[in-house]
Design goal:
The chain is α/β, with parallel strands linked by helices and 300 residues long. The protein is built from 10 helices and 8 strands. Helix content is 40%, strand content 17%.
Length: 300
């Protein structure tokens, strides 16, 4: 890392380590904290954000100045299934949309603990079907998400397969949480390295989303799914993440099933570092790589 980059990353890591967690302040305060923290991110003024009702699921179109409506990204935000919103993720969504030259639809799927599994997945399927009903071709559609939203995006692909609904052209999974039982070796290997997450936090969060008896269900923990027939996948994960093995194992199993998989492990990066693109070169570089990968698959 160069000096400037190191200083920016170090400052962000210090801030993250000092921030309260949902365990310490509760769900409602955690949500409020996320909403308030989003104020430091200012999106490009030329980016249009338009509210839309997606079959009664609140949502927003995020359309950068040079985006084409020929290509669409359905984006599922992160937040541990308990937090996050259009407001918290509009900067990240706008940057990904701009890099890909596409418009982006972000639904506000229902959150746990008020709405546990399968409510959020049901809303994701609703949003996907709504796009198809509004003449968005699957060939010009990419599904994407980060963290819990990345896992939800993978669950969506499995549900589409189950319901025999056409797959999108491709999917982008950013630091996806695919194993809610938290069995990957990286939980121990990267203990203390990831300032965003801990295994203890993830276990308690999973309990709000699904009953223990459901954690091995492939639509809850999509790492257990049958990946044959799924669309091409781009997976980005940081080498410091406690969830690193969620991505590495997913990539291996998907390749075994015949899926086209691109796995990128970004050295010394933590969970969803993309979120801090305003301040971090590696975050902007990762988003640029997403845009390049998506553009290559959405060519006419």
């Amino acid at each position: 890392m160069n000096h400037l980059k190191s200083r920016a990353v170090a400052a962000i890591i210090r801030h993250l380590r000092s921030s309260p967690t949902v365990e310490s302040i509760g769900v409602e305060q955690y949500r409020t904290l996320l909403e308030n923290s989003a104020k430091v991110f200012k999106i490009d003024p030329d980016t249009q954000i338009s509210p839309v009702s997606v079959d009664h699921v609140p949502g927003a179109w995020i359309t950068p100045d040079k985006a084409t409506c020929d290509h669409t990204i359905l984006y599922l935000h992160g937040g541990g299934f308990m937090g996050g919103s259009i407001n918290t993720h509009k900067d990240l969504g706008a940057r990904i949309a701009a890099a890909a030259g596409a418009r982006l639809l972000m639904p506000e799927y229902r959150l746990a603990p008020e709405h546990p599994f399968p409510a959020g997945l049901t809303d994701a399927v609703t949003a996907y079907a709504w796009l198809l009903d509004h003449h968005v071709s699957p060939e010009h559609l990419v599904v994407a998400g980060d963290s819990a939203g990345g896992g939800l995006a993978l669950s969506l692909l499995l549900k589409l397969k189950e319901e025999q609904i056409p797959q999108p052209r491709a999917a982008v999974l950013i630091s996806p949480w695919t194993d809610l039982a938290c069995t990957g070796d990286s939980h121990a290997r990267n203990l203390g390295k990831d300032p965003m997450l801990s295994s203890k936090l993830l276990v308690s969060t999973a309990a709000h989303y699904a009953d223990k008896t459901q954690l091995s269900h492939p639509l809850v923990s999509p790492i257990h799914g049958d990946f044959s027939g799924l669309c091409p996948l781009l997976i980005q994960v940081g080498s410091w993440e406690v969830l690193m093995d969620d991505s590495v194992t997913l990539a291996a199993r998907a390749k075994e099933a015949g899926v086209e998989v691109t796995l990128e492990v970004w050295e010394e990066m933590f969970h969803v570092w993309h979120y801090f693109a305003r301040y971090m070169d590696p975050a902007r570089d990762a988003i640029d790589a997403i845009g390049e990968w998506v553009r290559a698959r959405l060519k006419p």
